[in-house]
Amino acid sequence: MNCTSPLDIQYEDSSILVCIKPAGLPVQTAKTGRKDLVSELKNYRTRKGEDPYIGLVHRLDQPVRGIMLFAKTKKAAAHLSLQVSSRQIGKEYMAVVCGRPDSISDADITHDRQTSPDAAQTRRTLPPCGELHDYLLRDGRTNTSRVVPKDTPGAKEALLSYEVVKQNTETGKSLVHITLHTGRHHQIRVQFAHAGFSLYADAKYGQPLPEGNYCPIALCSYKIRFIHPDTGREMTFEMKDTESDISSCSV
Asked: How many other C-beta atoms are found inside a 10 Å radius of the C-beta of residue 189?
């Protein structure tokens, strides 16, 4: 999961820009003197003699690598933001989870669970494909989210579907393909950790970093699908060799 250039631009026209964010680079930050992707893209547009406007349509966690879509005009930003809110933008991920999903049994996860996060420690069986359906509450003070009962004030619905691509019986890790249906704070990381399958190297949600070396969280946003705000044409962008790239880290 090697970092690429902060300006690994995959596509650009007068209304949109698609690029790959490297792991470790924040999408946007208020910290003085620290680089972020939005600022780099604004500088890029300025150097070309363009209006430096960059519309942030969606986000990606700082430790995560992936493909991102930005608007170059306010009109395009409004159109794409509407697609996000109506769940018309499709986003797919690859991740390595710690724990080997097995066959479906009576002990499998209840997807509409209303239990505490600690209860996940007793559940170690995840169907080879299915959905995770939870309600998440964000804590701005700690910059974390957690699974809570549905009726908790401030809780937001979180839904994703997944499929196990391959497993390593020796390491106990699995490569999982994920389709995100809602875009909640740290959603994939929180939901899989709550299910008892933390993402590899995700120290924030229970998986210690590999001893003696740095490894990005084994999560990559590798594919995005949306309707072009001007042409109305469906567009799809996909990172190449994502499976082998993310697998080399841990599976």
From this structure: 24
